[in-house]
């Protein structure tokens, strides 16, 4: 997971997106970004995670106005979750 998070930061910077990874809590990554960049950022994060040596068996990606409005706080902590 650590290599993936480093790689995600590199990919987002290279893509000139305004997305910022704010927080990692266990298997959850939380990003802040403009609403018009959500789709592109989601695709890049999923692609980057899937290219890792041992990708997780399932990824859950969702977008919400804030973390409280997402279902991230109810996700099983062993399942990678990316909140945008």
Order of helices and strands: HEEHEE
Structural class: alpha/beta
| Major sheet attributes | 4 strands, mixed
Which regions are unreliable across 5 or more consecutive residues at pLDDT < 50? 74-79
Instruction: Bin the helical content.
Output: 25-40%
What average pLDDT do the residues reach? 78
Could you say how many structural domains there are in total? 1
Q: Would you report the number of β strands?
A: 4
Oligomer: single chain
Q: How would the global form be characterised?
A: globular
Instruction: Give the spatial strand order of the biggest sheet.
Output: 1-2-4-3
Q: Number of helical runs?
A: 2
Report strand %.
15-25%
Topology:
Blueprint: H1 2-14, E1 20-25, E2 28-32, H2 38-50, E3 60-62, E4 81-83
Describe the structure concisely for a colleague.
The protein has helices at residues 2-14, 38-50; strands at 20-25, 28-32, 60-62, 81-83. It is of the alpha/beta class and 84 residues long.
Note down, in words, how this protein is organized:
With 84 residues, the protein is of the alpha/beta class. The chain has one domain. It has helices at residues 2-14, 38-50, and strands at residues 20-25, 28-32, 60-62, 81-83. The protein has a 4-stranded mixed beta sheet with strand order 1-2-4-3, with helices on one face. A hairpin with a 2-residue loop joins strand 1 (20-25) and strand 2 (28-32). Mean pLDDT is 78; it is low at 74-79.
């Amino acid at each position: 997971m650590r290599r993936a998070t480093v790689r995600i930061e590199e990919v987002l910077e290279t893509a000139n997106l305004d997305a910022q990874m704010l927080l990692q809590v266990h298997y959850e990554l939380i990003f802040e970004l403009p609403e018009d960049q959500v789709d592109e950022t989601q695709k890049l994060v999923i692609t980057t995670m899937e290219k890792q040596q041992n990708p997780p068996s399932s990824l859950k990606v969702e977008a919400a106005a804030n973390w409280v409005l997402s279902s991230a706080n109810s996700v099983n902590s062993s399942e990678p979750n990316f909140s945008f």
